[in-house]
Write a structure and sequence with these properties.
- Four copies of one chain form a homotetramer.
- Chain A is an all-alpha fold.
- Chain A folds into two domains: 7-62, Arc Repressor Mutant, subunit A; 72-204, Tetracycline Repressor, domain 2 (Orthogonal Bundle).
- Chain A contains ten helices and no strands.
- Chain A starts with 9 loop residues before the first helix and ends in a 14-residue tail after the last helix.
- Chains in contact: A-B, C-D.
- The A-B interface holds A 39-44, 124, 126-127, 161, 163-164, 167-168, 170-179, 181-182, 197-198, 201-202, 204-206, 209 and B 39-44, 124, 126-127, 161, 163-164, 167-168, 170-179, 181-182, 194, 197-198, 201-202, 204-206, 209.
- Chain B binds a DNA duplex through residues 18-19, 22, 25, 46-48, 56-60, 62-63, 67-68.
Chain lengths: 220, 220, 220, 220
DNA sequence: CATGAATGAGAGTTCATTCAT
DNA sequence: TATGAATGAACTCTCATTCAT
């Protein structure tokens, strides 16, 4: 007889029943771990903490993960996955450089309000092993390159005022990444609002002054 | 006879002689600790690590600091001290709102390239004890309030285009705070360049479009 | 396959098998700790000492006790438990004041030859945390009050010669508590002998001189 | 210029002036150490604690004592010295066995209210090194033997009722030694009162019932 | 002499991880 | 499968003791 789990968050409830999809359980561990890592930092979160919040025992965690770092890495992976989706969507999305940047800001800001996304930019990379650290750094560089390329597109098609794409990208990325440090799910600003406002505000800072000239996008 | 310390960084050399200004030694510990905290995170930096880099033994550290957290707190304090200086300077500085924001960005960006400054925004506040955490949070809110007030001034005196000061402040703060995550002393961009460029770029995003109207500052 | 434990004291053997009653193991730790505390003093007994004597490792102790002081407190608790039993028995026991005092002396002397009982009066209360210290002091006062009340009863019912109950109680308590400083399990005097002799000797010092008058207990 | 020491206890003041009798300083250390040992137990008293209470530095202590244990041993020695005086006085003192016992109780009770005396019976002998422990134990046995011999004298000269001198001595010694556990200088009972009352009460417990027969002391 | 500084050894405690059942 | 028990390694911190001045 499964315990009454009506009042528990779903990822805690995942362990209530023995015959539950193991994938779901793995996911539940990750959700809980991410929560805790963001609350208390990775270093101060013990495997016991994770197990306790899930109402399971510590060794049970080792059925789903080889060790603590694997949990951390997986949190990163899920987070970067979310970002990857954004990048792909935008790549397919046709439009001006400015529009791409705007879309990026909007979506990325949203990701920064989701726990796994927050992990990527809020947790301390220094807690990763050298290998994983390398991967993460590489991925972060990729995001940066992409954002710069969107900006460059905008400069080229004259939707964005001439500027140093590197500095602009750093500014935008910084503003966005910082969201995960101050965003609170129950706070005054909803994720949606934040995303919308940031998209508008940051884009305005970039946009080329409106002239009679149209953007230089071929065929549009 | 003091050891030959010509080849050591100054803050390591501070411990070469037994009778050296204790203040200097305390400072040396802090510098080294800040370095390590930024390299490896607070949690993964042991007192031994700090001692070893200074070529002293672990217990010697306890002559200068009551415990590990006191070192962390002191790093924060030195960092916030740097920021405090900025805020005071700008407060005295007369000028338009936009000018104040620009001055803030310039100086703050510089602080974010200095280790102690980086500590404030890069280390994990969750590693602080509740008391210290409270203080730090309070101080961070203060910085935020100040930046918003500068922006509001700019809106009022028409040097800054109408916008939500809260969102604008978050964006700017984020862009600036993020510097301490990617800045490298030996990197392509010097602190000076970063500060200058950020001041120009971010300000441009805020500035009211140039019209014939002059800013509403008395006597201008 | 459990190790051969035939030759080990029972409380050491408790850890021979992984799946042994945890209560038994807890108890085994306490017995060993009490032994060591009495041998070497609490301060000079390290957790390692306790673990070694049990042939386990130090951290294993932390499965059963939160910290070293909890072990100490538990030793006290077991000891005071023994005394509590005495007090309750005597309270139910009907008889003259002198008989109650005699019963108390006899039983208490016996407790002072048992390790846990010895702990209460032999270990240094100053090693307890303020909270626990308070509890212990309170309990010791209780014992004192009880003994005094028995004596007072005796004075009232004329089985005990008039005297200052306070001083008398201090004398008796002192004589009894001191047992735990000199008693040796393998010594010349057995616990039984000590208890019997102390009961007789100390009682004689108190008893009212035999007169024709009977004690003032109804029906006697 | 010596500091104003009017308000300090004399043994703290001993260090106020550089040119003070070193013997006095040694003594001052001992007084302070004894105080602390009784307050917090030997183990929990650090050399720093002692130094701080004397307003000197830790290494200065090592001018007067080789190590911490020497301080402890010296406390014991001063305490046993006080007891030794008693024993000698009584040895010279002519009188019945009962009178000797009474004198012993009176004087010994007084010693148990003096810090150095308290140390001997209150501190944990287990904190002594094997050598010192041997000495102390030997001395304690000597005291016991003496007390027993006084009692035996009393039995022989018929001032003390027949009894087992061993048990009687243990009782009396216990009652007396326990004083140092509950005595408080500022408490309700003064040292004088305690000594007087104990002498009377304990002696009464021993005394042979008054008969027409006189004690068998020659010439009385 | 006296002291600030330094240290080696060891304390209690925590924790990621792995047995043994 | 899942878990209570156990461990080794590491950490922070303390302290008696000794240099170096």
């Amino acid at each position: 007889m499964p315990k009454d789990t009506a009042l528990l968050p779903t990822h805690v409830a995942a362990f209530a029943n023995r015959r539950r999809d193991p994938g779901t359980k793995r996911e539940a561990v990750l959700k809980t771990a991410a929560e805790l890592f963001l609350e208390k930092s990775y270093g101060r979160t013990s495997m016991n903490d994770v197990a306790q919040r899930l109402s399971i025992t510590k060794p049970a965690l080792y059925h789903y993960f080889r060790n603590k770092e694997e949990i951390l890495i997986e949190c990163y992976r899920l987070g970067t996955g979310l970002i990857e989706e954004i990048l792909n969507e935008i790549a397919e999305h046709c439009g001006t450089g400015l529009e791409k940047v705007e879309a990026f800001i909007y979506s990325y800001a949203n990701v920064m309000t989701v726990n796994f996304g927050r992990c990527v930019m809020r947790l301390d990379d220094a807690d990763l092993s050298p290998d994983a650290l390398g991967e993460v750094r590489k991925y972060k560089r990729k995001i940066d390159r992409r954002l710069r390329s969107f900006i460059q597109e905008g400069i080229d098609d004259r939707t964005i005022a001439p500027c140093d794409p590197k500095i602009a990208a750093f500014s935008i990325a910084g503003a966005l990444n910082w969201i995960c440090h101050w965003y609170e799910p129950e706070g005054a600003l909803s994720a949606e609002e934040i995303a919308t406002q940031f998209a508008r505000t940051l884009t305005r800072g970039l946009a080329a002054p409106r002239t009679s000239a149209r953007p230089r996008v071929a065929g549009k």
